[in-house]
Design brief:
Layout lengths: L2 E2 L9 H5 L8 E7 L4 E12 L3 E9 L12 E8 L5 E5 L2 E3 L3 E8 L14 E11 L10 E8 L5 E7 L19 E6 L3 E9 L12 E8 L5 E4 L3 E3 L3 E8 L14 E10 L2 H5 L2 E8 L5 E6 L6 E4 L3
Parallel strand pairs: 1-6, 2-21
Antiparallel strand pairs: 2-3, 3-9, 4-8, 4-10, 5-6, 5-7, 5-9, 10-11, 12-18, 13-17, 13-19, 14-15, 14-16, 14-18, 19-20
Length: about 300
């Protein structure tokens, strides 16, 4: 496995990171207990990476009184995983002093996988393992972001969101549901709508997680069913994607453009608590290039969950 060189970004550029907080990104935080290393895991939703693009994961370690030991340095390593949970790329582990941030870059052209036919697009999930001194250590005040960058250009597609502070906890913390079961948006000819769903692993505050069954339906403005996916089983630590091409949706759409406004509904089988932990993301993909042209992220409320030893 090729290890990618971490790109160190100066603290002076931190102001630019604040400009990214305009979008919606699901980031869950979990602890992995290992000996002698203990980690908190920052896990993002799924993303698509096409040829000529770079995924950048950035982590800021704040120096905020009361949130962590003064001048504490953490060590972090970013990883990319496929839908089966297999690691397909990883960075070196680097030190991030308090008050600084570091970025981890993954170039699609450096990942030796074929990807999707015709475009080479890879659907993947980014995560960052942050080594901490004790399992109870929280990442309150940390800021994480994932960006998709066009190689050779400054244009960025994606988002940032702080990891919020949470007090207390009853040992049964869980993520609230994401953007809800219904999403309304438009799709034009030459595009595919893709909804991806990640089923996270078990945490230390819950019993063993089980596979989740899910399927997706697409409706027109009048509530008429236009298309539906097969029901897919998603084991823990894996994700699945549901695709709907505009060409497969029968209505003609708006005059001149063929744009079709649709309602997308995600239907799940499982307990409310189990399904609340799922991490969804929705993308509109250009069929000719494999690039994501629009994205809706989950806006889950975030709580830290202790993850049992792997």
């Amino acid at each position: 496995m090729k290890r990618y060189i971490t790109r160190h970004v100066l603290l002076a550029k931190l102001a630019a990171l604040a400009l990214l907080t305009l979008c919606f990104m699901q980031i869950s935080v979990r602890a992995q207990y290992g000996n002698p290393r203990t980690y908190q895991i920052i896990s993002a939703g799924t993303d698509g990476l096409a040829r000529g693009q770079t995924l950048r994961f950035t982590l800021f370690n704040p120096n905020v009184a009361g949130l962590q030991d003064e001048h504490e340095t953490v060590r972090a390593q970013a990883k990319l995983s496929d839908e089966r949970g297999n690691v397909i790329a990883e960075s070196d582990e680097v030190a991030i002093p308090a008050g600084e941030f570091r970025s981890f870059d993954f170039h699609r052209n450096d990942i030796p996988l074929a990807g999707e036919a015709g475009t080479g697009r890879l659907q993947l999930r980014a995560s960052c393992y942050v080594r901490v001194a004790v399992p109870e250590k929280k990442l309150d005040g940390f800021v994480a972001s994932v960006e998709i960058i066009e190689d050779g250009l400054s244009s960025t597609l994606l988002v940032a969101e702080s990891l919020p502070s949470h007090d207390g906890g009853d040992g049964n913390d869980f993520l609230n549901s994401g953007f809800g079961n219904n999403i309304v948006l438009g799709i034009v000819p030459g595009q595919t709508l893709r909804l991806s769903l990640f089923n996270p692993p078990s945490s230390g505050s819950e019993t063993q997680r089980h596979p989740i069954s899910a399927h997706v339906k697409v409706f027109d403005y009048g509530g008429n069913l236009l298309a539906q996916s097969p029901e897919l089983v998603i084991p823990p630590s894996e994700f699945r994607s549901f695709n709907f091409s505009r060409a497969a949706l029968p209505p003609a759409g708006e005059p001149g453009t063929g744009r079709l406004q649709v309602r997308v509904r995600l239907e799940l089988s499982g307990s409310p608590k189990a399904t609340a932990l799922l991490v969804p993301s929705l993308e509109i993909i250009d069929n000719s290039t494999g690039r994501t042209t629009a994205r809706i992220r989950s806006t889950n409320n975030l709580k830290q969950i202790a993850l049992a030893a792997l």
